[in-house]
Amino acid sequence: MTALDTPQPPQPPHPGDAAPADGPEPGRRSRPRPRLPARLRRAGLPYLLLLPALLLELLVHLVPMAVGIVMSFKELTQQYIRTWGDAPWAGLANFRVAVDFDAPVGEALLRSFGVTCAFTVLSVGLAWVVGMAAAVLMQENFRGRGLLRALFLVPYALPVYAAVITWSFMLQRDNGLVNHVLHEQLGLTDSPTFWLIGDNSFVSLVVVSVWRTWPFAFLILMAALQNIPRELYEAAQVDGAGIWQQLRRITLPSLRPVNQVLVLVLFLWTFNDFNVPYLLFGKAPPESADLISLHIYQSSFATWDFGAGSAMSVLLLLFLLVVTAGYLLVTGRGRKHDG
């Protein structure tokens, strides 16, 4: 027997060696490894991913909003533009002036609010109707459907400044395309019409706004119609249901959740619209097209009374918050009732 075959006595474990793999040392209770940090990492990952968007939202929207609210309580005029923090504190004086409908400032604001409400109702309603009709028609298979869908989205894809400036040239009285077609080509009017001044400016504003927004409604509704099973329409046709009955009994109830969100988005976009009226009429729009966004702009930068303009903006924000909350509450109750 060699020295290698001789059994060696067991060696005591070295203090730095790891514990045996088959279990802990006798007499010691095993400690479970903490899992809380891993859970925290998994739970905090979504918030970490949302952090850049939240920071941008804070810088772009929330901070200016807070500054505007503070400005609404100050007598902020052109004398304090560079040092607006030193402007005297006005309290609720700016709000009292804005809601005093017997005074010229409040009367003008109320008239602008009424024009904006009428403009929003007509623009959103017509944009939804045109978008809904186009979405329903585009569900049928026919030659050139893809090209027609792409053409329908052109008004929404065009930059707003290029599109509205083009409309302003088309609506010119003497050399605009609209009067050229209506007056010179078709002879529908006795004389060229003023489309950018007077009462007709409201019609021009609604037309341009609908032209800009209906492709968005068409896009959303067309995508929503793809999720309605075709078997429902086939069964309705077998039962003798016509087009209007299918639209009333199948299409509109199926699109109710989408329409609730779509109408709210269109309402907020249209009520706050500033680019379209500003590009069409400039800084001083006619009374029939004096939307509240332009009115607040004039109250702030034409008269250099930024405190009053900020107070009007805060009132507009409160109105939109109340309307949005009420709309969501009513539609939420309707959805629960249907469920």
Radius of gyration: 33 Å
Largest sheet, in brief, is: none
Q: What characteristic shape results from the CA principal axes? A: globular
Any idea how many domains?
1
Cα-to-Cα separation, first versus last residue: 89 Å
What low-confidence regions span 5 or more consecutive residues with pLDDT below 50?
A: none
CATH topology: MetI-like fold
Strand content: under 5%
Topology:
Elements: H1 36-71, H2 93-99, H3 104-137, H4 145-152, H5 154-157, H6 160-170, H7 177-185, H8 200-225, H9 230-238, H10 243-254, H11 256-271, H12 275-281, H13 292-302, H14 306-338
Helix pairs in contact: 2-14, 3-8, 3-11, 6-12, 8-11, 11-14, 13-14
Write a short abstract of this structure:
Helices cover 66% and strands 0% of the residues. It has 339 residues and is mostly helical. It starts with 35 loop residues before the first helix and ends with a helix.
Give the key terms.
MetI-like fold; mainly alpha; 339 residues; single chain; 66% helix; 0% strand
